[in-house]
Amino acid sequence: MEVEPGLVVYKSKIDPDYMVFVIYEDNPIYPAIVEEMSEMKTICVMDTSTNFMIIDGEAIGDLNPDHLLCIEAHEIAHAMLDQTELTEEDAEIESDLVGIFLLKTLGFNEASVILERRLYNQRGVEYSKLTLVETVGEKRMKKIIDKLAE
Ligand SMILES: [Zn+2]
Question: How many structural domains is the chain composed of?
Fold first, then answer.
């Protein structure tokens, strides 16, 4: 839903506890948001205190809804996991693996295929249940499964 010029807001289909804000250049705060994101070399930021996710609508271009779901799943995985001990690379791999798991579990199969392909192309990691559990650990996976069951 467009709530003001250049700002589309909706609850994530991955987890309605997360609000997605897609911001476009005709919104007055777009330049400030994009400056912050470009410093972080990203097109999406998550505020874990509010669970608000802001996505650069201009950068996503004509990505389809499945691509948006991939971005959401990846960011929600970051937010769900305590990754303070991990390197940036390991945290990215882990968030893709958990993101794929979330998409598959919720039946977003086309989106999960897109994220699987991205993980393989960017990091050379092939998704499987075994890789997921070995990477994330059983204890932390259980937390995510419990959260999904809520
Ligand atoms: Zn990430």
Answer: 2
